[in-house]
Amino acid sequence: MDDRMHDAKHPRTVLAGPYGHPFHPIAVTVPIGAWVCALVFDVGALLLDQPSALLTGALWLIAVGVVGALIAAGLGVLDLMVIPRRTAAYRTAVLHMGLNLLVAAAFAGSFYFRTRGLIGTMADNQPWAVVSDVVLLAFLGVSGYLGGTLAYRYGIRVAAEGTQRTGFDPREETPVSSQPRTQGHRTAP
Questions:
Q1: How many other C-beta atoms can be found within 10 angstroms of the C-beta atom of residue 108?
Q2: Could you tell me how far CA 47 lies from the centroid of its own chain?
Q3: CB proximity list for 35: less than 8 A, separation 6 or greater
């Protein structure tokens, strides 16, 4: 493994998460979950005569998603900083980040418009809230695919194969939490 690939597998700082277990993929579950639930609430609101509780819930789920996206973006930038520039992995990471920022900004806009009564409040504009949710989640799905490419194809912030191999060695019976640490990772025997 060359030095550039080795560096892309290790955290730049402890804030990014330990070797082989970055925090960014954990953090993205908050905005994804919140925004999917907001869509469910918006669809539910279309079906009710008195949708105000679901519309309020969707509004606050969008807010939780935006805050979660900002945290996930900060952690993602820490992971981006270890990827060598002028590589396919770096270009993919920048596109991934750009799409995520676009989606987060659009959901922040949705929150603003909803609080001003411009979308998602009256029966005649409620379908537009659902449409915007679906479109933004589709963009988020594309970005998630790119994130998967970073991890599963390029191995960004994923443990090296030598470390992974220890999980498949029948002689290796030591739990991960009690394994000794050597230079941030453990190598295969």
A1: 17
A2: 30
A3: 61, 62, 65, 107, 133, 136, 137, 140
Residues 157 and 164: their CA atoms lie apart, in Å, by: 13
- Which residues are CB-neighbours of 146 under 8 A, at least 6 positions away? 92, 93, 95, 96, 99
Q: Which of 134, 136, 133 is nearest to 101 (CA)?
A: 136
Q: Which two tokens stand for residue 9?
A: 């597998």
Q: Which residue numbers in the chain have pLDDT < 50?
A: 178, 180, 182, 184-189
Residues 6+ apart with CB under 8 A from 150: 89, 92, 93, 96, 156
Q: Hey, what are 48's tokens?
A: 């009710």
Measured CA to CA, the distance from residue 11 to residue 17 in angstroms comes to 7
Show Cβ contacts of residue 105 under 8 Å, excluding neighbours closer than 6 positions: none
Concatenating the DSSP letter of every residue in 51-114 gives -HHHHHHHHHHHHHHHHHHHHHHHHHHHHHTTSPSSSHHHHHHHHHHHHHHHHHHHHHHHHHHH
For 94-139, the pLDDT digits (tens) are 999 999 999 999 999 999 988 887 665 555 557 888 999 999 999 9
CA distances from 52 to 26, 42, 119, 128 (A): 32, 10, 13, 16
Biggest CA pair distance of the chain: 66
